C-alpha cells in the first residue's frame, strides 16, 4: 500500500521526527509513504497537492494556526485525513469541528503514532477500493465512486453527477439494487430518484441536501431523521 503524506510544521527537528517515524513504520509494515514537507500554513494552502491521503499538521503554526488551515481545506470540500500535532490539549474540541482523525502530543510516542497510522491506512484502503460497474454507451465502465457526488434516476437511465460533469448510463439493475449495493460505500437514497455520496455532503436542510459541487438534491421529509442518523454515523466512522 502507498500513502501520500503531507507534513506541515515550522520546526525542522520535529518534521524530521515525523519522517523518521514514517520510515520506521514503513520498514515494519511495508507501507510506502511519499512525503512532502511544508513549513507554514500559507505555503501549504498555496501549493496543496490534490492527491494527498494524509495531512500531519502542527496546530501551533506561526501566523495561521493548524486549525485555521484545516478549516480552509474543509471549506474547499477537502476530505483529507488530518492528524493534529500539539503540545497542548486545549484545541481538541476545535479539531472535532474539522473532523480530525487523530491528535498526537509532542514529542511523538512511536507506538501511538504507529497505531494511528495503521488505523488510518485501513480506513483509506477501504475508501480507495470503492468502485462500481455501470453500462455506458461504449460498454461497461468501472467508476471510481470517490468521484461521484450523487446519482439521479430518470426513467431507465442513471445519471452520475461529478464535480464538473454528468454522465448517463443504462440501468442493468433497478435503482433499488444500486441503492443496496452502494450503501456499504457511504451512499444514501434521499428521495425516490436520488442517491447521494455522504462524503460529498456540504450541508443539510429540511427538504434538501447541498452537495460539494454546489447543487442541491431533494430530501424526502420522511427520510430526514434517517439521513441525519446515517450521516452522523458516517462522520463518526
Structure explained in plain terms:
The longest helix has 19 residues, at 110-128. The protein is elongated. Strand 13 and strand 14 (208-211) form a beta hairpin. The model has no long low-confidence stretch (mean pLDDT 89). Helix content is 34%, strand content 32%. The chain has seven helices and 15 strands. It has a five-stranded parallel beta sheet with strand order 2-1-3-4-5. The chain is α/β, with parallel strands linked by helices. The chain folds into two domains: 2-128, Response regulator (Rossmann fold); 131-236, LytTr DNA-binding domain (OB fold (Dihydrolipoamide Acetyltransferase, E2P)). It has helices at residues 12-29, 41-46, 66-75, 92-97, 110-128, 175-183, 224-236, and strands at residues 2-8, 32-38, 54-58, 81-86, 102-105, 131-136, 139-144, 150-154, 157-161, 166-170, 187-191, 194-197, 201-204, 208-211, 216-218.
CATH topology of the largest domain: Rossmann fold
Q: Biggest sheet, strands in spatial order?
A: 2-1-3-4-5
Note the quaternary state here.
single chain
Indicate the percent of residues in helices.
25-40%
What's the CATH first level of the largest domain?
Alpha Beta
Radius of gyration: 20 Å
CATH superfamily of the largest domain: Response regulator
What would a concise description of this structure say?
The protein is α/β, with parallel strands linked by helices.
Layout of secondary structure:
Layout: E1 2-8, H1 12-29, E2 32-38, H2 41-46, E3 54-58, H3 66-75, E4 81-86, H4 92-97, E5 102-105, H5 110-128, E6 131-136, E7 139-144, E8 150-154, E9 157-161, E10 166-170, H6 175-183, E11 187-191, E12 194-197, E13 201-204, E14 208-211, E15 216-218, H7 224-236
Parallel strand pairs: 1-2, 1-3, 3-4, 4-5
Antiparallel strand pairs: 6-7, 8-9, 8-12, 9-10, 11-12, 13-14, 14-15
Amino acid at each position: 500500500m502507498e500513502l501520500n503524506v503531507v507534513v506541515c510544521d515550522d520546526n525542522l527537528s520535529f518534521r524530521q521526527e515525523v519522517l523518521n517515524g514514517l520510515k520506521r513504520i514503513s520498514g515494519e509494515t511495508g507501507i510506502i509513504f511519499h512525503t512532502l514537507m511544508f513549513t507554514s500554513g500559507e505555503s501549504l494552502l498555496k501549493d496543496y497537492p490534490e492527491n494527498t491521503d494524509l495531512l500531519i499538521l502542527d496546530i501551533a503554526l506561526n501566523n495561521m494556526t493548524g486549525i485555521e488551515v484545516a478549516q480552509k481545506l474543509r471549506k474547499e470540500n477537502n476530505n483529507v485525513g488530518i492528524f493534529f500535532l500539539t503540545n497542548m490539549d486545549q484545541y481538541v474540541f476545535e479539531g472535532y469541528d474539522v473532523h480530525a482523525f487523530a491528535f498526537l502530543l509532542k514529542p511523538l510516542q512511536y507506538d501511538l503514532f504507529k497505531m494511528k497510522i495503521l488505523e488510518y491506512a485501513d480506513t483509506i484502503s477501504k475508501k480507495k477500493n470503492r468502485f462500481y460497474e455501470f453500462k455506458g454507451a461504449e460498454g461497461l465502465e468501472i467508476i471510481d465512486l470517490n468521484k461521484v457526488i450523487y446519482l439521479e434516476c430518470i426513467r431507465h437511465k442513471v445519471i452520475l453527477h461529478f464535480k464538473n460533469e454528468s454522465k448517463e448510463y443504462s440501468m442493468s439493475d433497478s435503482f433499488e439494487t444500486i441503492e443496496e449495493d452502494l450503501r456499504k460505500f457511504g451512499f444514501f437514497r434521499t428521495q425516490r430518484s436520488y442517491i447521494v455520496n455522504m462524503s460529498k455532503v456540504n450541508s443539510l436542510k429540511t427538504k434538501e441536501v447541498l452537495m460539494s459541487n454546489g447543487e442541491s438534491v431533494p430530501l424526502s421529509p420522511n427520510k430526514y431523521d434517517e439521513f441525519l442518523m446515517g450521516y452522523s454515523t458516517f462522520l463518526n466512522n
